[in-house]
């Protein structure tokens, strides 16, 4: 049986594979798909995405995105599905177009951006001391 610790809403298991945390994010995000299907106003959908979905994906990305691709695949596919629904695009539309139209980054690029941001804050703190 896996030992699970919750620290500041990060679900950490004893194997550090982040599957539990990713499943937790997935279960929270799956609730928004129905909301996005029912609402059809692009302005509201974009606001809801940036207000609720994007922060859930962003929180702790520095840690959990380094896990196996099989764990992250469900999260990537769900995010793509949500973006297709918001933008009213067909199922076969290309992923990069979805992200470009909302000025978003893919998970791997988002991870790199967050790491650079943390490094910049660290360097600024060192300089100030």
Mind explaining what this structure looks like?
By secondary structure, this protein is mostly helical. The protein has one domain (15-128). Helices cover 69% and strands 6% of the residues. The chain has 6 helices and 2 strands; from the N terminus they run E-E-H-H-H-H-H-H. The chain has helices spanning 19-38, 42-58, 61-64, 69-87, 95-101, 107-128; strands at 4-7, 10-13. Strands 1-2 form a two-stranded antiparallel sheet. A hairpin with a 2-residue loop joins strand 1 (4-7) and strand 2 (10-13). Helix 1 packs antiparallel against helix 2, helix 1 (19-38) packs parallel to helix 4 (69-87) and helix 2 (42-58) runs antiparallel to helix 4 (69-87). It is globular. The mean pLDDT is 87.
Give the topology.
Layout: E1 4-7, E2 10-13, H1 19-38, H2 42-58, H3 61-64, H4 69-87, H5 95-101, H6 107-128
Antiparallel strand pairs: 1-2
DSSP strand (E) fraction?
5-15%
- How does the major sheet shape up? 2 strands, antiparallel
Query: Strand order across the biggest sheet?
Result: 1-2
* Separation, N- and C-terminal Cα atoms: 45 Å
Number of helical segments with 4 or more residues = 6
Number of β-strand runs: 2
Radius of gyration: 16 Å
Global mean pLDDT: 87
Percentage of residues in helical conformation: 55-70%
Uncertain residue segments? none
Shape: globular
The helix/strand order is EEHHHHHH
Which class of secondary structure composition applies to the elements?
A: mainly alpha
Into how many domains do the coordinates divide?
1
